[in-house]
Design goal:
The structure is a single chain. It contains five helices and 20 strands. It is of the alpha+beta class. A four-stranded antiparallel sheet has the order 6-5-9-10, with no helix packed on it. The radius of gyration is 62 Å and the shape is rod-shaped. It starts with a helix and ends in a 7-residue tail after the last helix.
Length: 357
């Protein structure tokens, strides 16, 4: 059953039934002063091709006499002469039309028409067909669309970074020119042209470079110049992420450690020299150091008070011992004269003790 339905659909298609039908884009956004290419293909009854040739036209609206394109330029409206051209030939069933120098009143609709002419004759046959149900209209744009910039979210220092500038247009025969505000010998620019959707094409310019520290907070712009001279531009601010290193930690740490090491070496050398000098001073017999040491010990001993061997108070005045005068009696609070004292004294006189002095 499924195969039967597929066969039925195939045989009922315009190719097999010979139906007059055109496939034309319905609407295009066209930039004034630029150009537009209208994609178009068509089918026709097969039994007319062996003995006839085709004459193809484009006309404005439903009036087939307002031709905007014809092989005979004398049949073309004055305003469209030299501005329209068809691509392909009748064997390809290609009715694509190019219109240049778009003007503000080129709104359309524009329709394709085909006439079958007997070979060897310029008189058209009764087989004529205008595809008035498959016409195209233009939406005229006074200003071009801005380029679109796509790029990774982060640019890393020292790693390749690519920015794509793309713009949509309607003229693949005269594509827009995309330029960057920066061009260096290290930059790589790749241009790509491709069909975006039916009736629209896209031009891409891919800028690849290696960002550095100098590119941080820089401005990158892409300018699109369309056929006819109109331009548009898009900018972006580039922020470059520096390569992650530990220099901000290592350098201060090395500086601190190095300073501490130098300080430790200086202190060690000074301590050694100081100790060496002390040893030299102490090794000298009778040196100033020894005298100062003895003097210091003497001061400490006097400042500490009387020693245990001397029971006298510290404030008691020390007097010199006195000998008794020979002419005076002995002065003593405990002295008692007895009967023998006089004899003793006399003995002392006789011994001439003081006389010997």
């Amino acid at each position: 059953m499924i195969i039967f339905c597929l066969l039925l659909a195939a045989f009922s298609s315009p190719v097999f039934t010979g139906e007059w039908k055109a496939n034309v884009v319905k609407e295009l956004d066209v930039l004034v002063t630029s150009c537009a290419v209208i994609p178009c293909t068509y089918t026709h009854p097969k039994d007319h091709t062996p003995t006839s040739r085709q004459r193809r036209f484009w006309h404005r609206g439903s009036n087939k006499e307002e031709r905007i394109y014809a092989e005979d330029q004398t049949l073309v409206l004055e305003n469209f002469k030299g501005r329209t051209k068809m691509f392909g030939n009748q064997d390809e069933n290609n009715c694509t039309l190019e219109m240049t120098r778009i003007q503000g009143h080129d709104n359309g609709p524009f329709c394709f028409r085909i006439e079958l002419v007997q070979k060897g004759s310029e008189t058209p046959s009764t087989d004529k067909f205008s595809f008035v149900e498959n016409c195209v209209t233009f939406k005229i744009l006074s200003d071009p669309s801005k380029p679109k910039l796509t790029h990774p979210p982060t640019a890393i220092q020292g790693k390749p970074y690519a920015i794509t500038c793309s713009v949509s247009h309607t003229c693949p025969s005269k594509v827009p020119k995309l330029t960057w505000n920066r061009v260096t010998t290290d930059d790589v620019i790749t241009v790509v042209h491709k069909e975006n959707r039916f009736g629209y094409w896209e031009t891409e310019s891919i800028l690849t470079f290696i960002p550095g520290e100098k590119h941080d907070h820089s401005e990158i712009s892409c300018t699109a110049e369309f056929n006819g001279g109109k331009t548009s531009q898009t900018k972006l601010n580039l922020y470059v992420k520096r390569t992650e290193t530990y220099n901000h930690i290592i350098i201060p740490a090395v500086a601190v450690i190095g300073t501490a090491a130098i300080f430790a070496v200086i202190c060690t050398v000074m301590m050694k020299r100081y100790r060496k000098r002390i040893d030299e001073l102490q090794s000298r017999d009778g040196s100033l150091w020894n005298r100062m040491s003895r003097f210091s010990r003497r001061i400490r001993s006097h400042a500490s008070g009387p020693s245990r061997a001397d029971p006298r108070p510290a404030n008691q005045k020390v007097t010199k011992g006195r000998f008794p005068s020979p002419k005076s009696p002995p002065q003593s609070c405990n002295y008692r004269q007895d009967a023998d004292d006089g004899d003793d004294y006399m003995n002392a006189v006789d011994n001439n003790v003081y006389g010997n002095m």
